[in-house]
Amino acid sequence: MLGEYPIKGRRASEIAADVERAVGTGELPPGTALPPLRDLAADLGVNPNTVAAAYRLLRDRGVIETAGRKGSRIRPRPVTTPRDQIRIPVPAGAVDVSAGNPDPALLPALGPALAVAAAAADRAPVLYGHPAADPGLLDLARASFAADGAPDGALAVCSGSLDTIEQALVTRLRPGDTVAVEDPGWGSLLDLLPALGLRPAPVALDDEGPLPDAVNAALAAGARCLIVTSRAQNPTGAALTEARAADLRAVLARHPGILLIEDDHGHGMVDQPFRSLAAAPDGGPALPSRLLVRSAAKAYGPDLRLSVAVGDEETIGRILGRQRLATGWVSHLLQCAVAELWRTDAAPVARVAAAYRARREALLAGLARHGIAGHGESGLNVWVPVPDETAVTAALLQRGWVAAPGARFRLQSPPGIRLTPAALTAEEAARLADDLAAVLRTGRGAPRLT
């Protein structure tokens, strides 16, 4: 079972911490079976209830999984080995199309905005007891949400999309609850769910977003939350169309008790319109439990760890209450800087969105010339289904390209690779398409076209 590794500890927290440490160091690799409760209790000289509590902690942390009489095992990808670690080193001379980063050349200059923020802080330093959110940022966010047809609600400022989503999940759900998520989907979110003791229910999608029948099946099976990416979906680039949004609103109307989380991280760098799912299909009241999140990471830079969310009073109130107990607030220097960027950088949005669209379309057109169907309706990335993602990524590396293996983003969906053409020239995109086509022709099976 455990080979030579002896689990240690007298209390449940000590036993759980020892197992998690061993998983992190590789002494307990994924798939390792843990001893039965009574056997480990006897070895440690503790009550079996203590070991049961330790195993429960490990399940809630996403470190182990239990399969009835088969016992408990280390998860195939425990929380201590996040998906982002499935990364290929970039050799000298290779082009990295795996990272999912925006093009630095298309990010706005931060100096002027930070200078405005610093001057404001000099005039009126933010001290304890100051309101958590910058009024100017809230005004801009409220106007933006209203212009895009999002239901009105309370507002919160958090440290990025994932931070906002985590606070909503922690405060609205309980360990053991099921969350419906896109598959393939955002790897960090897929890691977060088991870390919180939540169960992911994979939902298939196409270029127009999640499939209504798949969403309905997940919610009918008991999922208490649905997380949808409105546009620039990671990794496929899917963007909700109005027809798909209408179908999904009809599905959600049949499940009004669920928490809907809409992730619009593409705001400010895409040209597809935002489609809110929170509004009722007949113009009636919005879903009672809802959250829409917009972050600054893709439009203004990943180091600007800031997001603004609108939602129902209870959800936002719980997020803010938890924030007060933890970080307290997001730095007003960041809030003021993002507000300044939002005010002054509105005109270049169309130019940035057009540049990303042209680069995606150059790669997609190159793939299409070889009969390879890629997906990239919006955002920074292109998803290419392939028969064997390990072989394809290795062969591309030999040709000077570092691609992201699809395992970073998948639960049950077929294999694929994610390519980020956000900073590629048209010539580079054409060469990447040619090289991928050559890889797929050389003994690794025909390209998958659907």
Structure explained in plain terms:
The chain has 15 helices and 16 strands. Helix 13 (348-369) runs parallel beside helix 15 (426-441). The protein has helices at residues 12-25, 37-44, 48-60, 111-123, 135-147, 161-172, 187-195, 212-220, 242-253, 297-300, 313-325, 332-344, 348-369, 389-398, 426-441, and strands at residues 64-66, 72-74, 95-96, 154-158, 178-182, 199-203, 205-206, 209-210, 225-229, 259-263, 290-295, 307-311, 382-385, 401-402, 404-405, 416-419. The chain is globular. The strands form five sheets. It has a seven-stranded mixed sheet, with helices on both faces. Strands 13-16-15 form a three-stranded antiparallel sheet, covered by helices on one side. It is of the alpha/beta class.
Number of contiguous helices? 15
What class, by secondary structure content?
A: alpha/beta
Please give the share of residues in helix: 40-55%
The proportion of strand residues reads 5-15%
The CA-CA distance between the termini, in Å, is 42 Å
- What is the rounded Rg? 23 Å
The residue-averaged pLDDT reads: 91
**Which residue ranges are poorly predicted, with pLDDT under 50 across at least 5 consecutive positions?**
444-450
Gross morphology: globular
Largest sheet: 7 strands, mixed
